[in-house]
Design a protein that fits this description.
Elements lengths: L18 H10 L6 H12 L5 H11 L1
Helix pairs in contact: 2-3
Length: about 60
């Protein structure tokens, strides 16, 4: 249907990684395969889609 290019809205620079904090944050969202994590991924991807139809599809999926 469409191609999705992963791009960030704002450039970031990570100076120091913190795996323990990352593990804690992921666990708060129900884990990497949790429903909340999937819903948040769809929500964030919606804003970078090229047309309104694909934005609407991602919005419907996340609900």
């Amino acid at each position: 249907m469409w191609t999705y290019n992963k791009i960030l809205q704002y450039p970031i620079k990570i100076k120091n990684t913190n795996p323990l904090l990352a593990k804690f944050i992921i666990s708060q969202y129900g884990g990497p395969d949790g429903e909340l994590a999937a819903s948040l991924r769809y929500l964030s991807q919606k804003f970078s889609m090229p047309d309104q139809k694909s934005k609407a599809i991602l919005n419907d999926i996340r609900n």
